Amino acid sequence: MENLTLTTDMIVVLALLAFTIFLFVSEVVRVDVAAVSVMVLLGLLSLVPGLGGLTDADQLFAGFASNAVISIIAVMIIGAGLDKTGVMHRVAAFIMRVGGTTERRIIPTVSGTVGVISSFMQNVGAAALFMPVMSRISNRLGIPLSRLLMPMGFAAIVGGTITLVGSSPLILLNDLLPDGMEPFQLFDVTPIGLALLASAIVYFVLFGRFVLPSADTKGGSGESTAEYFQRVYGLNYQIREANVASGCELIGWTVAEIEQRFGIVIVGSHVKGDLRIGPWSGYELEAGQDLAVLGSPEALGRFLDANGIRPRREMKVFADAMAPGKSGVAEVVIAPGSSLVGKTVTDVAMRRTYGLSVLRLQRGEEPIREGLRDVPLRATDTLVVHCDWESLARLEGNRDFVIVTSDYPRERLRPSKVPYALFFLAVALGMILFTDLPLSVALLTGALGMILTGVIDMDDAYRAVSWKTVFLLASLIPLGAAVENTGTAAWIAQHTLDLLGQVSPWVLQATIFALATFFTLVMSNVGATVLLVPLSINFAMAAQAAGMDADPRVFALTVAIATSNSFLIPTHQVNALIMGPGGYRVKDYLRAGSIMTVLFMVVALVMLNIVF
Questions:
Q1: What is the CA radius of gyration of the chain?
Q2: What is the Cα 76 distance to its own chain's centre?
Q3: Which of 65, 87, 351, 476 reaches 20 to 30 Å from 140, CA-CA?
Q4: Which residues cross the membrane (predicted)?
């Protein structure tokens, strides 16, 4: 093997690597600003006499047109298109039905699903498609998005090790093996990949509460809706779900009678597949009916105890409908000149007509709590209501009301476009799996199809792209190329392995694994694979010649799997993708990713030696 000598270009590249890691870890500037700064600095240094080999000035910005970056842009647009049609809404609802409504149950369900999907498509594509799902689940369950995206993202990365087509390094592996060496089959790596995915899921289930950040996504003062209505109106409320069993005294009672008797509000009803938000006051209860009941803890307790009803510990039937992203408590004011002035809440059938369940009536400084449904309304009366957000949005143009609550979700879904969205998603996935087209072309075909058929308009497509992610990845690509093209990566690998000398195969394999992990953090995983697979095979053969039990084929696979060990810093495409939406900082990756990196290495090495 040719002995490599440290050159001036290599020294400069090593210094740039150290500087980049310093900027990422110290967070002196934002990571995307740091990446752009390093890219520009690399270009300027190439003008210094003797350093022209650092980079080609004409290729400095080629990262913005790279297959990876264009693929990420396209898949963000596809994900937004699916979200616009309500597809992701349905997926999120299904996951919550299957996986429950708690963080410890949602994480395994989502992570397992994403991991399996990413074993047959690019992991960044799988992660991007599930980002709208995670956002919806976060909104509905009140779980910070930062506690959901990282487990999902890590599972997408790990899922690439389940099959031989799950990641670019594994796809390349057979082409890098020398002639005469037995190639790997599609599912040869599956036991290893499944063990890695299972270990990642167990890690976040057991230790997620310690290592995952809880980024504040509320904005403003951070005061919750419940805290606001408690402070302004003294309205202390909870929503509980319960079932009316056969023989219950409430059967045959109307909604109005129950609310007047117990001082609670029935905000949801479900019976025989008919789910209603804000059921009509004259609606009669039936046996087996599910109710969503809102009221103070004391009133709820009296209602449940008096009727022998056991509430469910968590929402099941109404988990989706009562989620913060679908419904909630709002303020509306009776407008001057409103046709409702002089009429009562009962007269206008407020629930049936407008979808509003009135909880409190505020007249100036006077709160009206008792008999409010029979009090004639006056102009400027403030109604505190529970409703679904679609009903509230419909009132925006109604001159009888002034809508005070403004920060509620306004979604204009396009359910009629679902067939187009699913068709072009299938086209993109089909092109990825069954053609040799670049990933970027396949995904852009799907994204363009959605735009042309009106699934998503161009302005929404622009807004769907996380430009922070785009600039971060595109700016790091020239540095990765410089590490490879100047011979810096080869020099590091060769001298590290030379220093080891005669060691046991386990130590040699672990060192190769660590080298591959390091290189995949600072350059492309494809580049790390192309560089290290031949080196690892040569060292295994040298170890064999020295009488050690080292299998060159296993050492090559070790490199291909180790290049998925990318959890420490946000240089991997998936980590960069989730960084902005999750509100993550580099130290969050260091905290959660450091343990995951060691766990991945230990499980992978053990499984490699068990399976092979």
A1: 29
A2: 12
A3: 351
A4: 6-26, 33-54, 60-82, 148-172, 192-212, 418-435, 441-458, 470-492, 512-533, 554-572, 592-611
Q: Is the pLDDT of residue 412 over 80?
A: no
The CATH superfamily label for domain 225-307 reads Regulator of K+ conductance, C-terminal domain (3.30.70.1450)
What's the CATH architecture for 327-386? 2-Layer Sandwich (3.30)
Give which of 233, 231, 227 is closest to 372, Cα–Cα: 233
Dihedral pair phi/psi, residue 322, rounded to 5°? -95, 10
**Domain spans of the chain?**
225-307, 327-386
Sequence-distant (≥ 6) Cβ neighbours of residue 272 within 8 angstroms: none
Tell me if 530 sits within 8 A of 172, measured CB to CB: yes
Burial pattern 220-245, b for ≥16 Cβ within 10 A else e, equals eeeeeeeeebeeebebebebbbbbbe
The answer to whether the beta carbons of residues 8 and 52 sit under 8 Å apart is no
Q: Nearest 5°: phi and psi at 569?
A: -135, 160
pLDDT in tens, 139-185: 767 788 889 999 999 999 999 899 887 777 887 788 778 888 898 88
Asked if the domains 225-307 and 327-386 are classified in one and the same CATH topology, the answer is: yes
- Could you report the per-residue pLDDT of 79-99, keeping only the tens digit for each? 788 777 877 667 766 776 777
Contact 242, 293 (CB under 8 A): yes
Residue 268 DSSP SS3:
strand
Confidence (pTM): 0.59
Contact 167, 123 (CB under 8 A): yes
Concatenated DSSP letters of 384-403:
EEEEEHHHHHHGGG-TTEEE
Higher pLDDT pick, 23 / 24 = 23
Residues in the chain: 612
Residues 6+ positions from 289 with CB-CB distance below 8 Å: 243, 244, 269, 270, 271
Place of tokens 């007249």: 363
Burial class of residue 14 (count of CB atoms within 10 Å of its CB; 0-12, 13-18, 19+): middle
The 3-state secondary structure of 273-326, one letter per residue: CEEEECCCCCCECCCCCEEEEEECHHHHHHHHHHCCCCECCCCCCCCCCCCCCC
Check the CA dihedral 453-459-464-470 and report its sign: positive
576 in Cβ contact with 473 (< 8 Å): yes
